[in-house]
Write a structure and sequence with these properties.
The protein has 136 residues and is mostly helical. The protein has one domain: Four Helix Bundle (Hemerythrin (Met), subunit A) (Up-down Bundle). Helices cover 75% and strands 0% of the residues.
């Protein structure tokens, strides 16, 4: 059973952003599924690397849209991205030999995904969708 399921409440209606969010959910679900594996320490670091790649690509995508369409809450939205990055980097430092903080990482990721996507990104998505309709 998936730790987090994709559903309509997470959908922004912007294909590339929605696909990236689905990729994040896949990463979180994979991470949760191997939390008791013998090589979980190695997997912890691999997952952190995937998250770093995710935020490099995904945040750049969102921020490009926000700049292009002059999103009024850009600064606060970008601040949430920066806080996510800081937390992921902190977890990277915590994933050392013989220690993989699975529970704190999973709780953080689920909470962040729920709060950020369902609140902050949905608000941004509504704004962007409206602006995109106006420019067609």
């Amino acid at each position: 059973m998936d730790y987090i399921k994709w559903d309509g409440s997470l959908e922004l209606g912007i294909k590339d952003i929605d696909e990236q969010h689905k990729g994040l959910i896949e990463t979180i679900n994979l991470f949760e599924s191997v939390s008791n594996a013998a090589d979980r320490y190695k997997i912890c670091l691999e997952t952190i690397m995937r998250l770093k790649k995710y935020f490099d690509e995904h945040f750049m995508t969102e921020e490009s849209y926000m700049i292009e369409y002059d999103y009024p809450d850009f600064v606060s939205h970008k601040k949430e991205h920066s806080e996510f990055i800081k937390n992921v980097l902190d977890f990277e430092m915590a994933c050392v030999e013989f220690y993989a903080p699975y529970t704190p990482i999973l709780e953080f990721l689920r909470e962040w995904l729920t709060k950020h996507v369902k609140d902050t990104d949905i608000k941004m998505g509504k704004y962007l969708n409206e602006k995109m309709k106006q420019t067609k």
